[in-house]
Amino acid sequence: MPPAPLTPERILEATEDVLRRYGPAKATVVDVARALGVSHGSVYRHYGSKAALREAVTQRWLDLSHAELSAIADADGPAGPRLRSWLAALFAAKRRKAGDDPELFATYMVLVGENSTTVDRHIETMIGQLARIVEGGVRRGEFAAADPAATARALWDATNRFHDPAYAADWSAPGIEAAFDTVCDLLLRGLEA
């Protein structure tokens, strides 16, 4: 049976495995190529540099939650429950990433630090989704927000403890769910029209 074709997706999967095994400081493109059974030149044909490969891995990791959250942001129905659902889904996704694979999560934190433009794009995507929820709430007369984009940014900042990886150690602490609910309640009351 011939080997599977070398695709960007296969390369990214192998890169995750290599990063998990060696960590970001020691993982090389040669290690990724070896894991795939190809030359490092074959990997470079898809990703022009080690930095480009690491950025693609970071982007892939951050994109994993975009589809689920976008579906919540774009759903019909009252904005308040959608906002709470979106924030809860984001918090749950971050907790899963930190808890299910702590080695890879730690690796991604290093990569995220290296790829600030990738992270900036991710944050803008997330804030854009929040803005769509706020705009819908304003249209329906549920929310009073003069500037939905600024309100979305404030919501992002106010919930930082529940999605910023710097707080990952807190995400399994006793009482974190109650703290999350309290923050959501406060934010929703503040948005009421």
UniProtKB/TrEMBL annotation:
PANTHER family: HTH-TYPE TRANSCRIPTIONAL REGULATOR RUTR, TRANSCRIPTIONAL REGULATORY PROTEIN. It holds the Pfam family TetR_N. This is TetR family transcriptional regulator. InterPro entries: Homeodomain-like_sf, HTH-type_TetR-like_transc_reg, HTH_TetR, Tet_transcr_reg_TetR-rel_C_sf, TetR_C_27. The keyword Nucleotide-binding does not apply. Residues 28-47 bind DNA. Residues 5-65 form the HTH tetR-type domain. The keyword Transport does not apply. Keywords: DNA-binding, Transcription, Transcription regulation. PROSITE patterns: HTH_TETR_2 (PS50977). It comes from Streptomyces hiroshimensis.
